[in-house]
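As a warm-up, study this chain.
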Amino acid sequence: MAMRRILLAALLAFHAVPSPAEEVERVVFLGDSITHHGRYMRLISDYCLTRWPERKFEFRSAGVGGDTSAGCRGRLAEDVDAWRPTTITVMFGMNDVNLGSYGEGKPTEPQDRAIAAYGTNLRSLLDTLQKSNPQAKLILLTPSPFDDTSKMKGGMHAPGANEKGLTALAEVVRTVGRERGLPVVDIHAPMTAYNKERQKTDPAFTLCGKDRVHPLLPGGCFMAFQFLRARGVPSLVADIRVDAAGGRDGGSANAEVGDVVASADGVAFTAREKALPFPVPAEAASLAEKIGLGDFNAERLTVAGLSAGDYRLFCDGRDLGGFSAADFAAGVDLAAIPAAPGRVQAQAVEDLNGRRCEFEADRLRTMACVRWYLRGQRIDPDDHAAVKDYYDRTVAPKPNKHYYESVMGAYVTDWPKRAELLAEVDRMARELDRLRQPKPHRWQVRRADTLRTVDLIDVTSPLAHPHEHGGARIVRTVMREDGVEFLRLTVTPAARGWTGYRFPVSVPAGTSFLSFKSRAEGEKPCGVGVTLSDSAGQNYQYSFSIPNGKAWGEARVDLSAKPRNSWKNGGGKADGTIHFPILQVSLERSDRAVIDVTSNGHARDGGNRKSNSRLDTHFCHLLLEN
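Now compare it with the structure written out below.
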């Protein structure tokens, strides 16, 4: 365990070897509004929480919108020192640079004074932090850029603020880091370079948000990746290795493998990974793939000794896809499979961590902003009566309020409840600790030719009970393409409502899931609802999004998963258990989830609908013959 902690400290530089009394990594992110919003902090904490589930972390934002390296010193005691941090990251510059001093024809003296003052103020700030937090490791970040090269509309314009001002401030950070032997993470130079490179083909591109200053989640993702790479964090999630021929663990790393059972049809085993893959918010997923998410997510399953042929991979009864024996011998990338259990669990961690970060930013850090502003107005923020009087008498009557005044009413209400708000953050942190613990899973690698796919319906027979709500019209055609026979429903949408069909079926016990291979033409994904009706008169509803375009998408109803909605025929709640056989499957499609192919997008809002949108569906279910 001691070696493990030394490794963690060496990689993250978050903390030296913890003493027996200090088992928690307490990380405080100090900065301005870019830190206040917490987006890069969110992704850094996502990585740490999932990569080291056995470690205890506390992440705290100490960002205040509008603050500077000089202005923050009056709040350090309550925003930094009070948390007894083991690591403090420091990023200032966007307000220090004095953006308003830049522009065509403006004098350069104010710009030069701001650059000179930054070095003095940063050194003084670090002196204060090191004196009051001798136990903490300091990590310096160069400031994120102001994007004055994007051709997007909107945002303030300050020509030269980035190329001259923030570039100079970034160099000050590097210099101070060298002087003091402190690690420096360069955000400014690579983020500026990436913006310019993307702007060669997309002139309006930016990582810096619509105001050119505040990165949204994609920009926060870029910043977090720079931080993690600079700290040299490991890429390994887990390397699961199974020897199918020998029926044993094949030398796994960061995973426990056991109960290996080999057969002529494949191999089954239980594995518990010791980490989860690095999850990213959906809003940042596309950028994350472009800038190297895979560099942080080495999660592979290698199975040696399989006979040649095609196989299906199952985990806890869920089909994760088809692979050849050669694929398994080379290693299957589990982190690239959306339904893989580690990725699903990690995404649940990210979802909750995102809510925690947003709650902290919206409630606690907004209060910190008001307290910082009140000190500047020479009002003691702890004198609640004085604050309320100032708000009632001076701020509330104003028709036009700036940011700090606009959120002061919430401060007056929330500050007496601060302990409750902190308790809610701590509650979410405890829930995160529970969610991020890896679980054992049962895996199966089965020869594809030992599995039986059964059509749910005969697509050539008449379909029962068409639903044509609100005037919608449906034309049904049986099609065959690339060896797949499917049903084409050509729908002329009504102004509102949904369209669908009910299919009488007989799905027996032993079926683990239903598979719906579908595609939808249009500019956006198609929302599809599937309702199963069982032999006990209960109905279970599931929702899917089918990608747009001509590619087939496969949606699956995992019969062990919790449905989105359920009810009994005649009213009341279902008992939560599917009673086989399943007797009916209903397919429903909301026309409001699809943009018509040629009606210029009007189909979404009830406008002109001159042409048809299309949904092609092939229904089948898979029986696992154990």
